[in-house]
Amino acid sequence: MPAPRILVTGGAGFIGSHTCVALIAAGYQPVVLDTLVNSDARSLKRVACITGVEPVLVRADVRDGAALDRTFAAHGVQAVVHLAGLKAVGESVADPLGYYDVNLAGSLVLARAMDRAGVRTLVFSSSATVYGDSQPSPIAEAAPHGPVNPYGRTKSMVESMLADLSHADARWGIACLRYFNPVGAHESGLLGELPNGPPNNLMPYISQVAAGERECLVVHGADYDTADGTGVRDYVHVMDVAEGHVAALHRAARRPGILMANLGTGHGASVLEVVSAFERASGRRIALRIGPRRPGDAPAYWADVRSAWRTLGWRARRDLDQMCADSWRWQCASPHGFDDPVPTLVPGAVLFQNKDRAINIHSNRGHTHV
Ligand SMILES: NC(=O)c1ccc[n+]([C@@H]2O[C@H](COP(=O)([O-])OP(=O)(O)OC[C@H]3O[C@@H](n4cnc5c(N)ncnc54)[C@H](O)[C@@H]3O)[C@@H](O)[C@H]2O)c1
């Protein structure tokens, strides 16, 4: 039986490439559709290095209906994981039409192409930004939407569009995954986040300070009403997020209708807690400077994850120490990102080893702990 093919839009990006690893480990064959506007095709070589399978890359725009038709016809796609999109909040404020075009119109064109192809199983990358910033934590899926920027509104609108679609046509099975703060890297150190320019997010920033690429971390506000005064977020390991897509795919393929699920750990960590964990993982001191609060930043939020467990059978398994250790390994193994040569690896070779564990490649689960 050939592996079922899954179209992964945006599959060369940070979460997409890790999702390809998880899909292959679960017995699927990803077909990636990506413009590479914010990613690098060499991420897929790294996926191959880890799993032994290189996803097919279709270099196309998710807003291009004809390209989608050709891709569905050529590859016999059975379901779609839709991650392609733009994600910088500040940029979405400056260029709202660009964000509505890619994120909203792109999702509409994709859903129409899926319908034409008779492919009606969809996992959509949504975000905790749909909740806005005034919800008490833990935030459950039933909390009202209140996005506070164009980026969050594009995600909220796509969710509404997909809910309308699923109510109109019972053949669709859809899962909208609301990620909290995905961080970390694949534990091999071969795959991770590659920010374009100065990172917008905390973990890659800390990692670059630890590596000596940046002088110090500016903490945006240390006078919040939290235990240590710094902002609290629900950081979740990118491989847990990736595995959440596999769980959502199983559910959406089996059960028509639509569901929303938070992907988080259910716990918040403050900026200072993340810094301490990173110092432990890297053995380096992270220089800090306390700056003013950033407008629009919420003091603290984290996910209610009970529904994800109930509906998907998924929960995050990796803790903050592992998120930091894996980020640091990626930083050290690939300081120049994908410009560093892909290590030559043979099946069964030990990909990574420390005192606690070794990881082999090309096992039937992508990697094994021995
Ligand atoms: N990383 C996060 O913190 C986070 C949090 C919540 C939600 N999300 C969502 O998850 C998805 C993936 O995020 P990521 O962090 O991997 O970002 P990313 O930028 O690394 O990945 C997005 C991918 O989409 C591609 N892309 C962009 N526009 C496209 C288009 N018009 N057609 C085809 N491909 C296009 C990019 O080249 C990139 O490979 C996004 O939809 C994002 O909004 C991310």
UniProtKB/TrEMBL annotation:
Record-listed E.C. numbers: 5.1.3.2
Pfam families recorded: Epimerase
SUPFAM superfamilies referenced in this protein's UniProt entry, alphabetically: NAD(P)-binding Rossmann-fold domains
GO MF annotations in UniProt: UDP-glucose 4-epimerase activity
PANTHER family: UDP-GLUCOSE 4-EPIMERASE (PTHR43725)
Cofactor dependency: NAD(+)
Domain NAD-dependent epimerase/dehydratase: from-to ranges: 6-254
Keywords: Carbohydrate metabolism, Galactose metabolism, Isomerase, NAD
Pathway as given in its UniProt record: Carbohydrate metabolism; galactose metabolism
Biological process terms in GO annotation: galactose metabolic process
Catalytic activity: UDP-alpha-D-glucose = UDP-alpha-D-galactose
Gene designation per UniProt: galE
Quaternary structure (record): Homodimer.
Protein name in the entry: UDP-glucose 4-epimerase
Protein's organism: Variovorax guangxiensis
